[in-house]
Amino acid sequence: MISVKDIWLAQSNLSEVLFKTPITPAPKLSKELGIGIYFKKENLQNTGSFKLRGAFNRISMLSEEDRNRGVVAASAGNHAQGVAFSGQYFNIPTTIVMPEQTPLTKVNGVKSYGADVILYGDCYDDAYNFALQYAKEKERIFIHPFEDREVIAGQGTIGLELLQSGIDFDAVIVPVGGGGLISGVATIIKSLRPDIDVIGVVSAGATALKESYEQGKPISKPVKTIADGIAVRDGSKITLEYMKKYVDEVVAVDDEEIAGAILFLLENHKIIVEGAGAVGVASLLYRKIDISKYKNIAVVISGGNIDVTMLSIIIEKGLIKSNRKLKLLVTLIDKPGSLLKLTEIFQKLKANIVQIGYDRTTTSIAYGDANVSIDLEIKGDEHRKAIEEELRKSGYKFQILS
């Protein structure tokens, strides 16, 4: 297992390319929870996530002979960009294998650093198995995203920066996928400040390492989550040993909670994060952790490389869920003036129409009727109720669409 010395060495290796990302107070979340919350903003790191730390540290320690052979990695995106950046920095031939469903943002991010990309498989583990075989056939060096001493040491530099900040934390919350990040962070934290709790957070759709931690042995679980950066199917024997030794607790958050945290961070803290980067905040927002014994908690915001399509879906659903947008399907008589009378209701109640559709041909309605689909900007729960009540009083048949 790595030591404090390995993490100090990694910090030195990374000094030329690493951003010492800010550790900032989170005033809105702190006020809501009644304790001090601080964000370690790895979404602002070079390449957009913490993964550069481990990848660069590993590649910086390759021999000249191994660099000439080239490197291969498997990743859903962030480790891929870290390896690709490092390969370009050291002028090393680099190939990345990514799952076929990887967001285009991350694929393009990898290609922008000059790496070759191979899309293969349904999840990270499929891509990983293919990449291992590819590296063997091409006699290249495989850079593992978490089962590697130098990678874990590189990720541990986050914990070192937290300790160097001078802020008196009593807990650190860390996203968990394969376990490399929490292994490195927990090693340095527990070695130098064993009184600080280290808490891991997984997606409820990718619980392999959480269940491995609880059962004391590596297990595999199917994955399905919007947090693609931590969508790992197989529990790691190597990172599990670090977790058993150093980690105090592992909790899970589901996709709805992750989406809620992404929107919360965007609206209240002006931070754009990906699903994996939001799980720590989700664990606090949705009370997965007993915070009563803590005064100051650091949350690792592990990355910000979210696909804009996913972000738009999260925003849309969040607006509906928080009653700031209302989708209606209203049935009315298909004659001149009917639509005008309907829109006058919305004008009267100061609900802004942002989209409207008119369908008189659908087979689900009676002859002489029409369906009107309407998206409204509204101002909360009471406003929604007032609109529904006014539609009922006016005799309209309608459905609320979610």
Named CATH architecture of the largest domain: 3-Layer(aba) Sandwich
Q: Please give the domain count.
A: 3
* Tally of DSSP helical segments: 16
- Hey, roughly how much beta strand do the residues contain? 15-25%
Query: SS-based structural class?
Result: alpha/beta
In helices, the fraction of residues equals: 40-55%
Spatial ordering of strands, largest sheet = 1-2-10-7-8-9
Order of secondary-structure elements? HEHEHHEHEHEHEHEHEHHEHHEHEHEEHE
In short:
The chain is an alpha/beta fold. Helices cover 44% and strands 19% of the residues.
What is the secondary structure topology, with strand pairs?
Layout: H1 4-13, E1 23-25, H2 27-33, E2 36-41, H3 51-60, H4 64-69, E3 71-74, H5 78-89, E4 94-98, H6 104-111, E5 116-119, H7 124-138, E6 141-142, H8 149-164, E7 171-175, H9 180-192, E8 197-203, H10 208-215, H11 237-246, E9 249-253, H12 255-268, H13 275-285, E10 296-301, H14 308-321, E11 325-333, H15 338-348, E12 352-359, E13 369-377, H16 381-393, E14 397-401
Parallel strand pairs: 2-10, 3-4, 3-6, 4-5, 7-8, 7-10, 8-9
Antiparallel strand pairs: 1-2, 11-13, 11-14, 12-13
Helix pairs in contact: 1-8, 3-5, 3-8, 5-6, 8-9, 9-11, 12-13, 12-14
